[in-house]
Amino acid sequence: MYSRTYRNLVAIPPFVWAATFLIVPYAFLFSFSFWQVRSQAIVHEWTLANYRQLIDNPVYLSVLFRSARIAGSVTLLALALGFPLAYFLSFRTKTSKNILYQLVIIPLWVSYLVRAYAWKTILGSDGVLNTLLTYTGILRHPAEFLLYSPLAVTLTLTHIYTPFVFLPIYASLEHIPRELIEASQDLGASAARTFWAVVFPLALPGVLGGATFAFVLSLGDFLAPLLVGGPTGIMISNVVVSLFGAAYNWPLGAAISACMLLLVAALISGTERLELRLRHRDAR
Amino acid sequence: MMTPDGVLLSIQGVTKRFGATAVLEAVSIDIKEREFLTVLGESGSGKTTLLRIIAGFEQPDSGEVWMKGERLDTKPPNRRNVNTVFQHYALFPHLSVFENVAYGLRARNIEKSEVTSRVTAALAQMKIEEFARRRPAQLSGGQQQRVAVARALVNQPSLLLLDEPLSALDANLRRYMQAELKALQREVGITFAFVTHDQEEAMTLSDRIVLLRRGRVEQIDTPRDIYNRPRTSYAASFIGQTNLLAAQIENRRARLGDLEWPCASGQRQALFSLRPEDIRIVADGEPAKTNGVRCRGFVRSRVFTGASELLEVECGTGALLKVRVSGQFGAPDQVTVEVAPERIVPLAE
Amino acid sequence: MMAPASRFHWLSVHAAAVFAFLYLPIVVLIVYSFNGESVGGFPPHGWTLHWYRALLEDDALWSSVWNSVSIAGCAVAISVLFGVPAALALERASFPGRTIFRRLVLLPLILPGIITGLSLLAFFVAAGARLSLITVAIGHGTALISVAVTEVSAGLHKFDRAQEEASRDLGAGEWRTFWRVTLPNIRLSVIAAMLLVFTLSLDEIAVTFFLVGRENTLPLEIWSRLRRGITPEINAVSSLIFGFSLITIVLWYKLRRARPDE
């Protein structure tokens, strides 16, 4: 239906831009990971030394595990907060549904920085929470452990990603024909059985999508740790940032980034395949 | 307010409002054991709402529903011994056909081996055993519909509700499934309450028809009785075709245009129903039937429909009668029509 | 129909708690932007507009705002210019490598910003380019093409293809069809995409972090101040940003709802 010229004119410019500013840069980063730095200069010799360093040096692995742990907690918490909320909005509200939905997505578009900063001011030893607790006498001394800890990072990231997790779950739930719920009840199922046998399986693609999103983005986050993480809250991306900054070892940083990229790609393709299989099962 | 003998379900004075509109108004129906009852009506007549109230998805604003001596409308839908075949089947897309049919049995924690045997039997009864492992999306509309029926029947409910289950099927498949459902109902002996807007379907399937109009019961009768003795003009014109005669009555005779017939009513005006097939075209010189009334008329139009022809005959001013003639009609424009007066049915409104 | 709607069902309590969790930090932030003294002490006292007034005189901040706005404008231009054709190509045409192209274009959405930012940094360094607002603009535009493509694709999806076919059937060429049939129908999606890209670009930090030169964008300006220490002035600017985001997102949502078939 469309002529060759039209098709080319439409498809080629975006492709060229993507090639220039996406493919080539990613390729560059990847090639950097095979080079080395010697006396403050990047040497273009091809070697696997960086990757070997990652495996040999336990520091990197431990930071990676901590990051994965934090990302995992964030994902689980965000699911625990987001799923019931999505269910509530989808099945238990009618007139207020629209307004409540808007209320959930509004925090999404409030600056990340603003939200992270808010937590910083709340959790500090001089912060709102501590002064409130000491003022009311619940605590005698401010809780030092709140800020500058993995806990603070987890809290901040959960705050950021709960709406992200909510969205695909809500979309999945809304797609469930209400007739199915009625059919389940008609056949004698209790409310619990209806949920676990009908609602949850059909919402699973959305849950997977949201969880992947939250996990991957939390894993690669470096801002929250810098703001509220302190020395114990360092995550893998902070290591990369310092390697590209003060520690000046771009090749090593690139190697870690490449590993992260591979890990993320594996995760995404894994859950995508699962999601596809689920959608195929549900014929949607 | 219990249920009388022979009656399975008793709907008593049920009223349901959505906002300011009354979707159902003081509806009372007794559904008999083992009968195939059809609730017939246009969209907006309240027929689906009535079904949903029986199933438990809506609550009546007033009135009660009783089943076999127990109050039904206060029970949640999953505790009623009633199952529904939904209009769009509502099959669980993520479960196999087997699991769909087994769903209700599993919900009641029935023992595994019994589940298997009952489901297999239900699938065989609906002739869909070969699809047991498939997903609903892989089946055609007709096959899905059978799954929906099997899924409901396997639970052996006291009452099966069917919400326009055949409306999504094409005409041939529809006729086939109508016959199947009728035979099935006789075979299993379960009471069926069937909802449709298609009067022909209602006539084919039912032991009795409940005609609903704007939330009220217009008439409850067997198909034969509702056809031959409609109570109102709505009933007369909704089911089959008819001539509505607004006649003047004087000296015990009713008259419309040139047509006159004996009428015992004391009113001055009345409405009557006369089916097109009850009007005969007589040849010139033919002797009149014992009490047949005749009049001359002009043929104004004719529509050939294959097995019969539908004529519009004008018998005097204001009397344009639809006449059904079997076979193919000859040429004349001026005809004599004859009617047996007992086929002219007086209507209440 | 469903379980009895009890006001105090645990689901509604849970929902209220989640909303509280989502909004309380922001509310606290805004409240303390009017606080007389420090940022965190409870209870707040000394209601003042001092910090907002200080903002007005803060030149460095305003120049960073201007930088952010210009970059956002460029980002919108880039993402729409390349995003609309990309969406068209993905939704309407079938060509080899379509899936890979789609994945590539949408990649920045799911990848942590650090990877996109670092890749572009490596690229610019290798190309010998100096880091500046231009490199930031390119970074934003590239990353946000994915957002534009998603929005416009959704709009194309909802828009009945038969209209385009009818236009061709009536003899219109492809360009005419695009201008007079396709574009008006996806107009709302394009506007929504522009709004979204603008807002996201204003707030972007991860990619910007690595591509910025001597001049700062607004988020980075706030960031550098945060490293020095927290002051209620930051609360004030944050509150203003929140207000602005609020308006844009409500606008965006209304645009989306106004789309046919939404």
Characterization of this structure:
- The complex is a heterotrimer of chains A (284), B (349) and C (262).
- Chain A is mainly α.
- Chain A has a single domain, classed as MetI-like (MetI-like fold), CATH 1.10.3720.
- Chain A has helices at residues 4-32, 49-56, 58-92, 97-109, 112-123, 128-135, 150-175, 178-186, 191-219, 223-229, 236-244, 250-282; strands spanning 36-38, 41-43.
- A two-stranded antiparallel ribbon of chain A has the order 1-2.
- The relative contact order of chain A is 0.12.
- Chain B is of the alpha+beta class and 349 residues long.
- Chain B has two domains: 7-229, 3-Layer(aba) Sandwich (Rossmann fold); 241-346, Nucleic acid-binding proteins (OB fold (Dihydrolipoamide Acetyltransferase, E2P), Beta Barrel).
- In chain B, strands 6-7-8-3-9-10 form a six-stranded mixed beta sheet, sandwiched between helices.
- In chain B, helix 2 (97-107) packs across helix 3 (112-125) and helix 3 (112-125) packs across helix 4.
- Chain C is mostly helical and 262 residues long.
- Chain C has a domain at 58-227 and 246-258: MetI-like (MetI-like fold), CATH 1.10.3720.10.
- Chain C has eleven helices and no strands.
- Chain C has helices spanning 10-32, 50-56, 59-92, 98-110, 113-127, 133-158, 161-169, 174-203, 206-211, 218-228, 232-258.
- The longest helix of chain C is centred in the N-terminal third of the chain and has 34 residues, at 59-92.
- The model of chain C has no long low-confidence stretch (mean pLDDT 83).
CATH architecture of the domain at 58-227 and 246-258 in chain C: Orthogonal Bundle
Distance between the termini of chain A: 28 Å
Tally the helices of chain C: what do you get?
Answer: 11
Largest interface: A-C, 88 and 85 residues
Number of domains of chain A: 1
State mean pLDDT of chain C (0 to 100 scale). 83
- Output the helix-strand order of chain A: HEEHHHHHHHHHHH
The coarse silhouette of chain A is: globular
Strand order of the largest sheet of chain A: 1-2
SSE topology sketch:
The complex is a heterotrimer of chains A (284), B (349) and C (262).
Chain A: H1 4-32, E1 36-38, E2 41-43, H2 49-56, H3 58-92, H4 97-109, H5 112-123, H6 128-135, H7 150-175, H8 178-186, H9 191-219, H10 223-229, H11 236-244, H12 250-282
Antiparallel strand pairs in A: 1-2
Helix pairs in contact in A: 1-12, 2-12, 3-7, 3-9, 4-7, 5-7, 5-10, 7-9, 7-10, 8-9, 9-12, 11-12
Chain B: E1 7-18, E2 21-32, E3 36-40, H1 47-55, E4 62-67, E5 70-71, E6 82-85, H2 97-107, H3 112-125, H4 141-153, E7 159-163, H5 171-188, E8 191-196, H6 199-205, E9 208-213, E10 216-221, H7 223-228, H8 233-238, E11 243-250, E12 253-256, E13 259-262, E14 269-274, E15 279-282, E16 293-304, E17 308-314, E18 320-326, E19 334-339, E20 345-346
Parallel strand pairs in B: 3-8, 3-9, 6-7, 7-8
Antiparallel strand pairs in B: 1-2, 1-4, 4-5, 9-10, 11-12, 11-14, 12-13, 14-20, 15-19, 16-17, 16-19, 17-18
Helix pairs in contact in B: 2-3, 2-4, 3-4
Chain C: H1 10-32, H2 50-56, H3 59-92, H4 98-110, H5 113-127, H6 133-158, H7 161-169, H8 174-203, H9 206-211, H10 218-228, H11 232-258
Helix pairs in contact in C: 1-11, 2-11, 3-6, 3-8, 3-10, 4-6, 6-8, 7-8, 8-11
